[in-house]
Protein: T-cell leukemia translocation-altered gene protein homolog
Organism: Coregonus suidteri
Amino acid sequence: MEEPWDFEFLSRIVDGFVSFLSEFVDDWLANDMRVSIFKILFSWLVVSLIAIHFAWKIYGNTVNDMYYRQGTGGKNGGTPDTAPHRSGWESAAGDNLKTHRE
């Protein structure tokens, strides 16, 4: 049978996480140059992700419609409404393939 999780192992993980968080909070409250740079870059990342979220919310359907065009297909990357009944192997075997010289 498998042994249950050792509580000492879990307590070490929790203690390590708590000590990491306490050091992070201490550094965050310090007026250090690297903390200031981190705060600027972190805020830039958060603002960028929020802007991407709202841009996708506004323009997402337009981009999706441009990528997946609906219609009869064939021209400009459209998708056909119905698939042909022959498979790729059957159509390749029955058709005359053009060579580079033709």
